[in-house]
Amino acid sequence: MNDNETQVSQPTVELLSALEGRFPGAAQPAEYEGVVVAPDQLVDVAIFLRDELGYDYLSLVTGVDYPEPTTQFPARFEAVYHMSRSEGGEPLTLHAHANRNDPVVPSVVNVWPSASVHERETWDLMGIRFEGHPDLRRILLWEGYEGHPLRKDWQEVYYEEDNKPFSSRHPEGRPVQAEARAPLGRNLRYPPGWSPKAWKPEAETKVYSPFDEHIGGNGRSMATDQIVVNFGPQHPSTHGVLRMVARLDGETIQQLEPVLGYLHRCHEKIGERNTWLANMPFTDRLDYVCSMSNNFGYAVAVEKLLGVEVPERAEYIRVIMAELTRILNHLVSIGFFTNDLGVYLTFMLYALEERELIIDLFEMASGSRMMCNYFRFGGVARDLPEGWLPVVKDLVYERLPRRLEEFERLLLDNEVFRARTIGVSVLPGDVAVAYGCTGPLLRASGVPYDIRRAEPYSIYDELDWDVAVAYNGDIYDRFVVRFEEIRQSLRILRQALERLPEGPILSGKVQPTAKVPAGEAYGRVESPKGELGFYLVSDGTANPYRYRIRAPSFANLGVLGELCRGHLVADVVAIMASIDITLGEVDR
Amino acid sequence: MTAQNSSLPEVPSELQGNVHLMPWDKFYNWSRKRSLWPLFTGLACCAFEFIAAAASRFDMGRFGMDIARASPRQADLMIVSGTVTKKMAPQVVRLYNQMAEPKYVIAMGACAISGGPFKEGYNVVSGVDKLIPVDVYVPGCPPRPEALYNAILTLHAKMEGEPIKSLRWYQKDAEDEGVPVPVLGPDMVDWRLMEEAATLEESK
User: Fold this and answer.
1) Which residues contact A563 (CB under 8 A, 6 or more apart)?
2) Other beta carbons within 10 Å of B52
3) Burial of A221 (0-12, 13-18, 19+ CB in 10 A)
4) B19 — phi, psi (to 5°)?
5) Strand, helix or coil at B90?
6) A172-176, A466-470, B185-189: lowest mean pLDDT where?
7) Residues 33..72 of B with a Cβ closer than 8 Å to A: which?
8) Strands A129-131 and A104-106
9) Which residue has the higher pLDDT, A555 or B174?
C-alpha cells in the first residue's frame, strides 16, 4: 500500500481533537479513514461518542485481516466500526487493532445493542473474539465448523488463485471442472485425523443453547412447563430459509432467537477474489427482490474510492430505477405480509401483477427480469431503450396511483387487517435506534431517518419529496409508512421523468479489470429495506481487499426477539413479515 | 377418442363416444401428470421466479399444479429453486425423504444444477444432484417462468413414458431407505463419502 494516501479528513481531525482532550494517547489517525482506538479504551470511547457526541446509531461492526505489516502498522486484525447520528450526517469510522495470534477486542454490545449480530458474524467469519459479548456463537456457519473463512490465509476447497481472472481456469483452452480438482470430488474437506466415529455433532445442540435451562421440563410435576419450539428453515411463512427458535409459555412468546445462515452463499469471500466490476452481478443476488438498489449501493461505494463523476442523465436514470425498485419491493412486501396474515394469495396476486409490469421495464432496459446488473462505476450500462419512457409514464402517472389508492382502501381500512396489526409488536424509537434498525421499520417508530435525506447521495437533494414517518411503531404503522413511501416514490419519479436530461450515460468506459486507488470507503444508500452499506478496502489492485456488505435485513433481524416477546405465537410470522427481510441479503 | 391400437378389443358402434380404450399405463400416467403437486422449497432467488410462474400472469394452474404444498407429505414434485447451502443440505435431503413416492425433482437455476455463480463458495453444495436424484434441470440465473414450464412439460413427457409395471415404487416389496441425511461437522458430513475420505486420509 502506498503512503501518500494518508491525508486525514476533516471529520477525523475533529474527532481526534475531541478524543485527545478526553482520552490522551488513546487515538491516532488510521491508515485511510477514521481513527484507531486503543482496545482497552474502546468501550469508554464508545460511550463518549454515543452520549456526548450523539453517535447513537451503529451501522456496522466488521473485521479486516492484515497478515502482512503495512507502512504504518504491524500485522493485525482490525475491528472496524461505523456509526452515525440518528439526526443525520456522515458516518464515523473507528478501528481497533487486535493481535493476529489471539485476536481479542472488547465488545460494545452494552453501548450499542446493534453490535450483537455484527460481532457474532465477525467472530464467525473472521475469528475476532469480542470479550464481554453475552452469546458469542457462530451465526452464519454452524458451531463446530473448521476455521474462519474470511481470514486471508484460509482457502476454500475449490481454491485456485487469490484473484480473478484465474489463469488456471482454461488450461489448454478447455475448462476443467472444479470437482475434478478437489480430492473428494466435492466441495468438502475434513481436517486431518478427523474420524466420524469418534465425533459428536454439536451444531444442532448449540442452536438450542440459549434455551438450555428450559429444555426437558422444570422437574416439578404439577407446575406448568414452558416449551421450546422450532420454526423453519423450511416453512411457508419464513420468506425463504429463516429459522427461529422460540420459548413459549402457553401461547405467549417468552424468548425468540433467529437462526441464520441457511442461505450463506459466501458473497464476501467470492467478492474478494472477483475484480471490482465482477461483483456488480453478485450484488443483484443479495436482495433479489430489488437488484437495482443493490447495484446503486455498490456503485456509490466504489465511486467514492474512484472519485469519478456520474453524468447527470445517468443519475436520473439511477434514481428512476431505484424508486421503481422501492415501489416493487413495498408492494411485494405488503403482498407477502397479507399472505402471512392468512389472506392466502388474494392480495399477493394483486401485488405480483404490478411487480410484473415493473420488471418488464427492467427487462426492457437491462435485459433481465430480476438480475439487472445495470449500474456501472460512473453511470449505467446502457441507455433507456426506445419506447421505454411512454410505458413508464403510463405506469407512474396513470396506473400505479390508482392501484395504490385501491390497495390502501383494501388493506388499511380493513377491519381484520386493523385488528391483527394495530398495537401489535410496538417498537419504541429509542430501542429501534439502539438496535440499529433502519428503513420503514425505524421510520414507523417516529424516527425520520432516511439516508436519502440524512446523507444525500446522487440527486436526491435536488428533488422535492418527504420522508415518510409514522409514530406508533406497531405493525400497522410499518405498512402506513410503506404505502406513504410508494406515494413519495411516485412523486420523485414524476419529477425525475419530467427533468430527465439528454447526454452521456457513462463517464469514461467500462474497464472490467480496472484498478481502484488504495483506500477504504463506506458507501451507503437507502434501499427499500433500510441502510444498505458497502464497506470496501482497496490495496490499489484490480480486486477488493475487503468487501463487506451491511445488509439492512440482517441488522433489522437483530431486534426480532425484542419485537416478539410477549406476543402470541400466531403473531410471529406477521411480525417477521412486517420487518420485511430477504434471506439472500440476511445470510449473504 | 377411439381405440387406435389394433391389439385392443373392438368397441361396438353404439358405445363409441362413451367408452375409451387405452393402455393402462397411458391412462394412469396421463392422470397423474395432470395433478402434480409441487413442494414449496423456495431456497433463494429462483423462488421468486417460481412464485411469478405460479401467479396470475403465467398461471401454473393450467398444468394442474395450482398451489404449492407446504408439507412434503402432500407433494409429488420438489422444485429446488435456489442455492443449496451446506447448512441447508440436511433439510433438503430430509424433505426429499419425507415425500411419498412417486416423487420427482426439478433442479431450477444454475445454483441448484451446479452451484452456479456461488460454486466456489465454502458453504455451497455443487449442485443438488450431489445429494438427491434429479429428473429435470432448468438452466438460467434465474430461469424465466417459461423455462420452468418447459421443464414441467419435459417432466410430463418423462412421466408419460414410465412403465408402471417395472417402476420400482409400484413393486410389491419395493423398499425405500431414503438418502442418508448429511450432518454438520467440521464440514458437511456426507455419510456416503466417509469411506472414500478415510482411504484418502490413509494414503497421505
Assistant:
1) A425, A427, A575, A579
2) 22
3) exposed
4) -110, 130
5) helix
6) A172-176
7) 40-45, 47-49, 51-52, 55-57, 67, 70
8) parallel
9) A555
For residue B13, with 0-12 CB atoms within 10 Å meaning exposed, 13-18 middle and 19 or more buried, which class applies?
exposed
| A43's grid cell | 468501550
Is the Cβ–Cβ distance between A148 and A154 less than 8 Å? yes
Separation between Cα atoms, residue A181 and residue A166, nearest integer Å? 14
Amino acid A80: pLDDT: 92
Q: Are A157 and A188 in contact (CB under 8 A)?
A: yes
Per the confidence metrics, is the pTM higher than 0.80? yes
| Half-sphere CA count of B202, side-chain side, radius 13 A | 5
Chain A contact present for B196, CB below 8 A: yes
The better pLDDT of the pair A203, A391 is held by A391
pLDDT classification of A236: cutoffs 50, 70, 90:
confident
Residue A150 Cα distances to A76, A204, A268, A270, A493, angstroms: 14, 23, 8, 10, 40
Residues B99 and B72: beta-carbon distance below 8 Å: yes
Q: By CA distance, what is B116's nearest residue in A? A: A265
Specify the pLDDT at position A4: 42
pLDDT in tens, A198-210: 888 887 888 887 8
Q: A144, B190: Cβ pair inside 8 Å?
A: no
Place of cell 489448454: A172
Q: Which domains does chain A have, with CATH numbers?
A: 12-131 (3.30.460.80), 267-550 (1.10.645.10)
Tally the C-alpha atoms within 13 A of residue A495's C-alpha that lie toward its C-beta.
Answer: 14
**Cross-chain Cβ contact B121/A270 below 8 Å:** yes
Query: Per-residue confidence at B1, pLDDT binned at 50, 70, 90?
Result: very low
Quick check: B85 and A262 CB within 8 A? Answer: yes
Least Cα distance to B149 among B74, B76, B50, B83 occurs for: B50
Q: Using alpha carbons, select from A103, A108, A112, A21 the residue that is nearest to residue A66.
A: A103
pLDDT band at A169 (very low <50, low <70, confident <90, very high): low
End-to-end CA distance of chain A: 29
Q: How confident is the model at residue A222 (pLDDT cuts 50, 70, 90)?
A: low
Query: What is the average pLDDT score of chain A?
Result: 87
Q: Find residue A190's DSSP bridge partners.
A: none
Distance CA B201, CA B204 (A): 6
